[in-house]
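Sample log: Response regulator.
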Amino acid sequence: MNNYKNTIPKLNVLVVDDNEDMCKVISSILQAKGCETNAVRTCEEALRVIKTSPPHMVSCDIRLNENLSGLDLARIVRGDKDTAHLFLIAVSAYCEEKERALQAGFDMFFPKPVKFSDLTKALELYDRNANLLNGSGSSQFGC
């Protein structure tokens, strides 16, 4: 068994959803894939976390029961030079929102309920993009 992954930093994912159960489901899937997660319930909380302890990736519900929607979060993140690079995943129970989510700046869209295979695809795409940016041919994260 290889122990080299213990020295590789874990991918940190921020999960944003006003439904506590959905936060737990998405976080559990990501943790099973070896990621570290932080779950928050509002976009305001998410923006604070992004500013103080930026994650590698954000999974965000589009329709949140508050002033800011997931679409607003994506626009704010993309509009800030310090956070514009973050990998953003939109999740929604409304499949017709996919185009709006991608236009707002999300990298990927998944319908609820989010599947293990969906998040696996997102992690693989993130890893491929990160490898292209750093010129590496191998994974730089532990998941």
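Observation: The first strand starts at residue 12 and ends at 16.
Observation: Confidence is low (pLDDT under 50) at residues 1-7, 135-143.
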